[in-house]
Amino acid sequence: MGDQDHSVGRRRFLGYVLGAATLTVAAQLGEAAVPERAEAAIPSLPEPSEVYDLNDLLTDAALPTANLISIQLNTDGTASFALPRAEVGQGVTTSSAMLIAEELDLPLDRVRVTLADARPELVFNQLTGASNTTLATFTPIRVAAAIARQRLLQAAALQLGVAVSTLTTSAGVITSAAGVSIGYGELAVAAASAGTVQVSVSLKPAARFGVIGTPQNRIDALDAVTGRKQFAMDLSVPGALPTMLCRPPTINGTVGAVGNLAAVQAMPGITDVVAVATGVAVRGQTFGQCIDAVRALQVTWGPGTAEGTSDATVLQELQAAELPLVVPPLPLLTQAVDARFTFHFASNSALEPNCAIADVRADRAEIWGALKAPIVAQELIAAALGLLPTQVTVHVTQGGGSFGRKLFHDAALEAALVSRAMGKPVKLMWHRTDDFRQGRAHPMSTSRVRATYSLGNVVSFEQRHTSVATDFGHGVGEILTSLVDKLPVTNLAFSETMFALTQQTPYEFGVTTQLLSEVDHGFNTGSMRGIYSPNVRCAQELVVDQLAAAMGQDAYRFRRQFLKDDRARAVLDQVAQAGDWGRAMPAGTAQGIAVHPEYHGFVAVLAEIDCTPATVGRQVQDAYTGPRVTKVVCAVDVGLAVNPRGLEAQMMGGIMDGIAVTLSSSLHLRNGQFLEGSWDNYFYTRQWNVPPELQIIVMPPTTGIPGGAGELAVAGAMAAVACAYGRATGGMPTSFPINHTAPLGFDPLPAEPPIPASPVDGLGRAY
Predict the structure, then answer these.
(1) What letter would DSSP give residue 680?
(2) How far apart (Å, rounded) are the C-alpha atoms in residues 686 and 656?
(3) What distance in Å separates the CA atoms of residue 301 and residue 258, rounded to the nearest whole number?
C-alpha cells in the first residue's frame, strides 16, 4: 500500500472530562485511512468498496456519538468501560481492554470491560457487525484513556507540588523525579470534575506501544474454561422459568388450532401454555418438562411463507432473475471464460441456541439477550408491546457465537410476546432444531461470471450475483434504517448498497462490474459471516484459475501480476513461499491459492486437499467424510493487529467456516422445510476434516490503524479450497458445498413435533 503513514499517534484529539464523583472521561472523534492503488496494463476503475466500504460507513456513523462512550477510573485503581458492542466470542472485550491499558499505562488485568445496555442516544454507535468494532472504537477509546492519564498527571502534580513534565506513569502508578509514587486509585476523586470540560490530548506513538500489537490471552478465558462465564441462560432472573415453543413444520407456518391445550397444561411442571404468532409456547419448571409438553401438543398448522419450495424450485427462480451480462467475446479479438455457480442454503446457527429472558409488565419490560443490534431490539420490541422505548430495558449479555445470527432479536421479541401473553417472566430457549429449521439461513444464490481476455491481458470481468433476499432488518443499528429495509420500494436498494459497499475485485481486469439481483422474501435469512463475500470470492477465484490456465500461466504468478494492491501481493507471496507453492504432489491431491480484500484488510490462503478414493471413501460413524483439506497456510494483513493472538484465532475460525461451506455444510430444502435438524445432520468441519497442518502468518503493521478481521478468512479459505479441489479432480466445481447433491447421510428428524430425540440417545457414541 505504498509508504503512506496512517498513524494517529502524532495528531491531537478532542475529548471531555465529564462531571462525576470519580474521574470519568470520553472521546470526541477519530479518522480512517484510504487505500492507494497500483498500476496495471489495463487498469480497472475503482469499485465503490475500494473508495468507501461498509466498515467506513459504520465508523463514520459512530463518530458523532463517540463522546457518549466513557471510561471511569475507580478508587481501587481499576478502570471501568461499558463497551457498546456485543462480545460473541470474537474477543472485542479483550482488544478494547488492551487499548485502555495502553493509553492509560494500566495493567491489562485492572481494566474491567462490561457490555452496555441498549442506549438509543448512541444511534448508529451500538451495532456489532462488518468486522467494525475494533476500527470504529480504536481512536475514541484511546483518546478517552489518554485524557484520563493526562488528568491523573495534573492531579498528581498539584498534590505533589511539582511540574507535570517531571512525572511518569507505569502500571497504574505515577512517580515523581524524587521517587514519590501515587496510585491511580488515590487520585480518582481528585482528578474528577464537577462539570464537563473539553480538553485536547495527543496519543501514544506506535513506537512506544507495550500492549497494542502484543499477543494477549483473552481476559475472559479463565471464566470460559471454568464455567463461570455468564450467558443469557445462566442468569437468574426472579420468576423467569424455562420456556420453549412448539413450532410449525414448514418455514414461518402459522398456528391454527390446539387440540389438547388443557391436557398439556396439566402435565407435570407445566405452568402455562399459550399460542403466539410463531407457535405454541409452554412454560415449565425445567426445560425437560417443556420438551415433553412440546412433544405432546396437537396443533393444526396453517401455511408458511415458503410452502412447496425445494432446492430445485428456488434455483429456477434464481436463474430466471439473473441480470444479463453485457460484454460478449469478440471473434478473432478476445476469448472468454464463462461459468455459473450455485451456492446452497447454509445454516446461521451459532453454538449457543437462540435464547432470551423477558419480564414484561403492563407499564414496562426488561429483556436479557446476546444482541448485536440492541437499539433496534429495544425500539421494535417496544412497538410490538405498545410501550415507549424508554419503558423497555435491554441488557446485552455475552453470546456463545453469532456469525451474524445475533444481529437479529428474534428470540428476544418472541420472549417478550410470550411473557406478555402469560403475564409472567420467561427464560425462552429455542431448541437446536428450531434454529436449523425456523432460524436464520445464509441465502441460496447463484453467481454468473464472464471474463474476456486477449494478448496476455484480461479485458473485462463481469459478475452477476443472484440471491434469495438477505434480511437487513437490523439496519445500521436503529429503527429508521431497520424499517427502510422492510419497505417494498427500498429493500432491494438497501441490499444493493450493502453489496456495493462490501464487494470488490482485487485484480486489474479491465472493465469490471459486479451486480446483485435478489428474489424471494419467504425465507428467514441473515448476513452470515461475510454477507456476500464467500460466495462471490469463491466464484471469482475459480474463474481466475481458469483464466490463468487458458492463458498458459501459473495460478499464483497470474494473480500476482494482476493484483491492484501491494499489501495483497505481499500476503500472496507469503503463503506461496511458506506453503511451497507448486511442489510436486501425488495424483488426486493438489494445492489451491486465493486472495481476498475486505474492510481495509487483506488475506491470502494456500490450501492443499486430498481427493484420493481412500480418503473420500473413509468411514466415520454418522458423518459425511469426502475430500479432506490437509494443509492451510494463511497470511493476514489488517494494518495494525491490536491483539495478534486474537487475530490468529479469528483466522482459524474463518478457515474452518470456509472448509465447511466448500465441502460439506448446507441445508436441504424440501416441501417448504429444511431437512437438517441438528449439528449431527449439518456437517460442519469436524475434527477429522480439520487440516493437520495449519499455519497463520500475521503480517507486520502496514498502517497505523486496524482493519476488519472477523470475517476476512472465510472467503479466502472457501476460494482456496475450491480451487484446490478443482485442480485435484481435474474439473472446476460449480455447486457448493460439493456434497450437497450426495445422499443425505442422515434420517431427517420429525417435523411434527419439531423436537429431536432425547440427548441421552447419543451416549452410545460417547468416548
Answers:
(1) T
(2) 9
(3) 9
What is the 3-class SS of 160-220, one letter each residue? HCCCHHHCEEECCEEECCCCCEEEHHHHCCCCCECCCEEEEEECCCHHHCCCCCCCCCCCC
Cell representation of residue 228: 463461570
Model pLDDT for residues 166-221, shown as the tens digit of each residue: 999 999 999 999 999 999 999 999 999 888 888 899 999 999 999 999 999 999 99
- For 630, residues 6+ apart whose C-beta sits below 8 A from its C-beta are 589, 608, 609, 610, 691, 692, 693
Q: Give the torsion sign (CA, 232, 236, 240, 244).
A: positive
DSSP3 helix / strand / coil % (the chain, rounded to 5): 35, 25, 45
H and E: helices and strands count for the chain: 20, 31
Q: Cα-atom radius of gyration of the chain, to the nearest Å? A: 27
Using a cut of 0.85, tell me whether the model's pTM lies above it.
yes
Could you tell me which of 463, 459, 169, 423 has the C-alpha nearest to residue 333?
Answer: 459
At 619, the pLDDT band (50, 70, 90 cuts) reads confident
What pLDDT does residue 746 have?
A: 87
Residue 616 CB partners (closer than 8 Å, separation 6+)? 625, 626, 627
Q: Specify whether the CB–CB gap between 482 and 376 falls below 8 A.
A: yes
Instruction: Tell whether the model's pLDDT for residue 760 goes beyond 80.
Output: no
Q: What's the pLDDT score for residue 398?
A: 96
Distance separating alpha carbons of residues 566 and 313, to the nearest angstrom: 44
Instruction: Identify the CA nearest to 19 among candidates 89, 70, 94, 90.
Output: 70
Helix (H, G, I), strand (E, B) or coil at 151: helix
Distance CA 501, CA 277 (A): 35
For residue 116, what are the β-bridge partners?
A: none
Task: Tell which residue, 647, 646, 640, 652, has the closest CA to residue 219.
Answer: 646
Which string of DSSP letters, residue by residue, matches 216-282? ---TTHHHHHHT---BGGG---TT-EEEEEE--SSTT-EEEEETTHHHHHTSTTEEEEEEETTEEEE
- Per-residue confidence at 10, pLDDT binned at 50, 70, 90? low
Please tell me the distance from the alpha carbon of residue 154 to that of residue 147, in angstroms, as a whole number.
Answer: 11
Q: How far is CA 62 from the centre of its chain?
A: 18
Gap between the Cα atoms of 621 and 206, Å rounded: 52
